[in-house]
Amino acid sequence: MLFTDLGLKAEILRAIAEQGYTEPTPIQQQAIPAVLAGRDLMGCAQTGTGKTAAFALPMLDRLSAAAPRRKGAVRALILTPTRELALQIGESFDAYGKYLKLRSTVIFGGVGQAPQVEAIRKGVDILIACPGRLNDLIGQGHIDLSDLEVFVLDEADRMLDMGFVHDVKKVIAKLPKQRQNLMFSATMPKEIEQLAAGILQDPA
Ligand code: AMP
Which H helix or E strand runs over 172? Predict the structure, then answer.
């Protein structure tokens, strides 16, 4: 299978070609059509399998094809457990979305919040965040997720291991009911299945 068989728009195919990718990886082959169709998804995949592009490419396609629910709204949120992962995902969205007009920013703790608040104030379509800092900024009134369209929970098993379950649930409580949900985990213990059951609707 080739990337050109997946139905992604030309601007995205061009960016992928520049990355040197020709064939989608197995998780990409399975996830991209489902996410493009608007379905919820449970992806069982580790880092290194191409899972970031598996969610980022179809998200960029859908977001760029439709107007936001509200002008200036945060349209997509990717929750990830560590600063390193957040930065990597941010770089991936920048690379794959370089020919699109969507804006993204990365939010994590351990550094001053002022530049992050300023980026949000200017308007972002896609927010890539670690749960602690995100809740801080929501609590201070800097971030409104009420018109979110897509929610991604990345590395869900590590989120649990790192004790972020409460923070994750607090974020989910701020999201609108009608949204697309994508969840990724390297392992599928019972706790992850339970968490998934509470988040995903009829997932692929
Ligand atoms: P990830 O699993 O998302 O951390 O991706 C692992 C690495 O694989 C990253 O460096 C990506 O740039 C790269 N990658 C993702 N998809 C592909 C692909 N279809 N072909 C070649 N490399 C890829």
Answer: helix 165-172
Contact 23, 1 (CB under 8 A): yes
Angle at 157 between CA 111 and CA 103, to 5 degrees: 45
- Judge contact between 6 and 87, C-beta under 8 A: no
Ligand 1: does its nearest atom lie under 6 Å from the Cβ of 50?
A: yes
How far is the centre of ligand 1, averaged over its atoms, from the C-alpha of 2 (Å)? 15
- Residue 183, helix vs strand vs coil: strand
Q: Report residue 108 as tokens.
A: 């994590």
Rounded alpha-carbon distances, angstroms, from residue 132 to 21, 51, 83: 34, 23, 11
Tell me: the pLDDT tens digits for 116-154? 999 999 999 999 999 999 999 999 999 999 999 999 999
CB of 29 within 6 A of ligand 1: the answer is no
Which residue is closest in CA terms to ligand 1's atom 11?
Answer: 50
Tens of pLDDT, residue by residue over 24-45, are 999 999 999 999 999 999 999 9
| CB of 151 sitting under 6 A from ligand 1 | no
